Amino acid sequence: MWDTVLTVVVVTVIIIIIIIIIIIIIIIIIIIIIIIIIIIIIIIVVVVINIIIIIIIIIAVVVAAIVSSLSSSLLEQRRCEPLWRGKTKRSPHPTGLQKPPALKDKDLAQADDPPRQAAYGPMEWRKILLTNCPNIDCFENYGPQYVNKHNKKLNPFWTDVFQAYGQFYDNVKLEKYSELLAEPIFNNNKFKIGNNPFCYNQWTKHNILLVKDLTNEEGTFYTVEEFKQKYDIQTVNFLEYYSCISAIKKYVKDSNIDIDNSLPNTSSKAYSMTLGSPKGSRLFYDVFVQKIDTPNPCKKWEQMLENEIDWDKIFFKTHKIKEIRLKWFQMKITYRTLVTNSILKEMRIVENNNCTFCNMEKDTIYHYLWSCEHVQLFWKDFERWLKSQCDHCQRLKMNKVLVLFGYDKKTRTDDGFDFLLLHAKYFLYKCRFNKCKPRLVAFCNYNNYQYKLDRYVHQIEMREHNFTLKWAMYNNLFNQ
After folding, report:
1. How far apart are CA 287 and CA 285, in angstroms?
2. Among 45, 95, 274, 369, which is 20 to 30 Å from 170 by CA?
3. pTM of the entire predicted model
4. CA-CA-CA-CA torsion for 29, 33, 38, 40, nearest 10 degrees?
């Protein structure tokens, strides 16, 4: 009996295990089917999205093509409505000028002259400009102000063109006497009377237009009597004639042009550059940027020191200073912005503007860095110190330009001396703030510290060889 029961139990357990296994297998199959369905759905979605993107791109390309076509048509319809300086002006021609009547053969021949060919391109444009601006024929024999003065009805575009040419013309610097002789006298900003360009109608009637018309074969200007006899003019205003000659001579002096007996050029320099320049704007760019005015502080230094200073070299040396604190210090000297008692008094920070060292004269940058008696003693000690320790400094002579700016045309310096001089000036600056007299002994201690600091910087930068070369001639200064 127990055997039967045991058999039934075993069979039942086995059946239950089989059923559980079947259920697990069914669940796994269902999960796999679900995963496959999800993957299929994802693939379908991705394909649909790609199809939609492609359709959108096709539609965008088609729309862009349609818009471009419509825009071209609209621009073509409105090409006669140019907008200049915010003002719309309708015109039957793209130039903004009225279309001229048919020109005769004589006019067409005149329209082929080089100025119009070079400046205005196609034949149609030259015809239009000739009709609306007949004074263009005088372009070569007058300054650029002539066209602007005698053509008030030009549209804004051509007004801008001639104004730009005028600026270019004014920036072209004459360097040779032959270039000066080919220069127009009238309506030319290079020659001014009372700070304005001028024009003498009586002279233009006798075809007296260029500087060469006022000179003889030797290159000197005619006297009034020679001028009358040359051009058969009965009456010549003495003041007008010599005012014109003076204006030309002033330009010659300001431009440092050497007068000789060279033959004049065929046309003015600016006119020749415009006609003969290669394609591109490089030449015109160079003319506009060739001269940068000297800053006003630099001009004041030149006036004060009564010396012409090479500022390019000074700014180049200043740029090479690595320590920002010292670079700013030198820049403040150059631009006259270093703090002095004169400035502090105006700001009501100090009671008087006397020098901190001598307490006698007005405190200025020039005074406390050079002319003060105590500072003069310091520079003399500094010069003797260098001469006694360095053989190559025997011919050294300190001067105000060298001290203030670290460069002088008559003195050749090296990196070591530049370092010493710059720190000597900064030492004076610190003495002024500490209200103590500058002494060479104190500077030597200060300089020894700066020397060690400079060596440390070169070691960090792995430029010890440069340090050795820099101080090779000055080793005796630091071995005392």
Report:
1. 5
2. 95
3. 0.48
4. 140
